[in-house]
Amino acid sequence: YFILIYCIILFLHAQTLAMNVVFLPLHSGHFITVEEQVQEDQGKAVLLGPDVEQQDWSCFRMVYQVTGSASLQVQKRTDGESFDQVLWTTQGPSDSWLIASIDLQNSTEMFKIVIEGKLGEEGSSVSIFEIKISDKYCIECEFEEDHLCGYTNEWNRYMNWRVGRSDDTALNDGTGQYMFVDSNDTKSFQEVAKLVSPMTTVPMSGCLSFQYQQYHAGDHLFTLFSRDQAGQYQELWRANLLENNNVNWSPETRVWIPVQVDLKAPYPLELVFEVSFNGPHGGYVILDQISFSPEFCNAGTEPMFDPSVANCDFESGYCQYVQTQTDSSLWRRVSVRPNIYTAGDHTTGAGSFLLANSRFSLQSGYVSRLFGPPMPGNQKYCLKFFYSLQGLSGTDQVLSAYLYYSNGTKQEQIWTQNYKIRNVWIAVELTIQSQKNAQVVFISTCKNIWSCDSVGLDDIKVTLGDCALLAPSHCDFEAGLCGFTQDKEGDSGDWMLARGPTPTSYTGPRGDHTTGVGHYLHMEASMMLAGHKARLVSSSLRGSRETQCLQFYYHMYGSGIGQLSVYLQTGEENQDKLLWTSRGEQGISWLRASVNYQYDQQHQIVFEATRGASVRSDIAIDDVVFERGPCRGIYDNLIIIHICYSRYRDELYILFVHKMHANTKLNAVEMERVVC
C-alpha cells in the first residue's frame, strides 16, 4: 500500500534517464516552496507530517529542488523522544529536480516525518514536488513508477539505460515497463552504461533478486557492483557469457533469467548495474523486477559481522583482547580512584583501563602487543579508541596500531601516536578496510630507559562503515553550543567555550573529554565572586511518559571548587527541580554523571555552576547526551555485597561485586575495617 503524505502529482513518462535528473513538465502539477519571509523571521520552514506506524520496512521518497546556499533536511520524530533523528540532508544545490530515497526500518512506535527547509543567501530556494511512503525497500523496483524508484543513469553521452514497454514480467497487458541498454547506441569501442540505485540509508542484509535477458552475451559484460560513498566498488555478480548468447529477443521466444545475490550493506551502498560493450554489435541487456528479502538467498551464508565483539571499556576484564606471553612486557588492567594527582580512566573517571610500559617493570627494548578479535575482510570499519601518556619523558611513537593478517605474513601499520600531551585522554578515529581477514593490534614500544612512557588505552569501539557523525542528542561542543544558551536573568557569570587548559593554574581540565584536544564548556572562576552562579539552559525538550536519561561528563579540580547542579526547568516560576549535584574538589579526571528523570511536558535542563571560595574553582562539562529510557552503565552488572558507614569521613560506602564474581568468598568484616 502507499501512504501519501502531503501531495501527489503524476509524472509524465520520460523515456530516458539523465544522471541524477528527474524531468518534470511545469504543467504536470503544483509544488510547495519556502517563502522568503521565513529567512527574516525564524530562519527555517518546518513541514510536519501525520502520525505514521510502519510495522513493515518502508521507503520514503521525495522529489525536491534546492538552489543557492539553501538546505533541506528530513527528520524522524518518534513519540517519547526528545530529539528528532536526522534521516537525510542535502549535500549541495541542484540544477533540477532530484529524488531522495530514505529507508524506514519497521517499527511499532508512532512517528512523524519532519521536513526542515532553510534559505541561505538572496536568490536561494527550497521546493518539494512529491512526497510518498511506500511499503517496500528503496532499492526495489519494477520500473512501473514514473520516476523509476529513484534509479538513475550515470551519465554517458552516447550510452544509457532506457525505459522499454512490453508485456514484461510484472504486467501481462502489454503496458509493463523494464530497463534496457542496446549496443546500437554505441559510438566507439568499450562503451559503458551504468544504472545506479538509490543509496541505502540504514544497515540491511539479505537476498537481492532480479530478472534479466541478454543477446550476444559474448560481445558485452553485464555486471552488478555495490559502491560505497567513497566510490569504492565491489563485484557482487556477473552474467554467464553462454546464457542466451544466440537467442533472438521477441515476445514469443524471450527467456527471463532469474538471479539471486546475497547482499550485505552494513553502511550506505548503492547498486550499480553495469553493461560494457566491445562494439556496435554487442547485443543488448534487459533488466526488470528488482526485489529484496531480509533472508539470505543461501542458508549457508554467514550473517553480517557484528563489530561490537571488538568493543571494550575494560571495566570487567580484557573482553576478547588477548596478549602473547612471549612478549617482554604485558598490558596491565589498572584502576585509579579520583584524586588530584593521577587521571583515572576515560569511561567514567573512576573505572579501569589498560596500561603498558609500567615503571614497575621498566626495561629497555621491550614490546607490548594487544590483539583484537578477528574481523572479516571485504568490509569497511571505523575503529575508535582513547590513549593517554602517563609518563614524564613525553616521547612520540610510543603507541601504534597495526592490521595483522590471519596468515601471519604481513603486518600493516595504520596509525602511530604523535601527540605528546600527558595525562589527557586523546581520541583516535580510523577508517580501515582490508580485503583479507585481519586483527587490530595495539603495540607499545620502549626503546630505552630514557624514552619510555607509560601509555594508557581505553574505550575501544568498532563499527561498520565510515566513522559516523554524532547524533543530534549528543553535544560535544565541537560545533558550538548545540542549542544551549546562557541564562542572563538567573546568573552572574557565563559558561565559556574552551580548548586546552583554563587560564587559571591548578584548576580546570587540561583538555576536553571527547578527543583530548577539542572543546568543552567551563565556568571561569577568576571573573566571578564567591557564590556567583553561571547557568546554562538547554533548548526546549519534548516530554515523555517514559524515563529519560541525561548523561554528561564533568570536571571539578581546584582547591576552591564550589558546586555543580543540574535542574529540571518546567516553565513554572520558582519550580526548578534539583536532579543532581556535586560539591567540592573531585580530582583531575573527567567523571561521568548519569541522571534519570521523567517529565511528560515541554521542559529544559539547566546546568548551574557555583563559584567557590577562591579563583581555583573552574568547573567544566562535556559530552552531554540525552537518551530515551533509563541510564545504562557499568553498575548494571554489579550487585551489592556490603554497606558500611564511616563516622570519621561522615560518608556511606556501598561495596559492589561484578555478577561474574558473585560466588567469590569475600570477608565483609575485613573490608569494613579497611574501607570504613
Task: Name the descriptors.
single chain, 676 residues, mainly beta, Jelly Rolls, 6-stranded antiparallel β-sheet, 5-stranded antiparallel β-sheet, disordered N terminus, disordered C terminus, MAM_domain-containing
Count of spatially separate domains: 5
Look at the structure and give the CATH class of the largest domain: Mainly Beta
Shape: globular
Which stretches of 5+ consecutive residues score pLDDT under 50?
A: 1-27, 658-676
Annotated CATH architecture of the largest domain: Sandwich
Most strands sheet: 6 strands, antiparallel
The beta-strand count equals 41
| Number of helical segments with 4 or more residues | 2
Mean pLDDT level: 81
CATH topology of the largest domain: Jelly Rolls
Instruction: Name the structural class.
Output: mainly beta
Helical percentage: under 10%
InterPro entries: ConA-like_dom_sf, MAM_dom, MAM_domain-containing
Pfam families: MAM (PF00629)
Signal peptide: 1-18
Keywords: Repeat, Signal
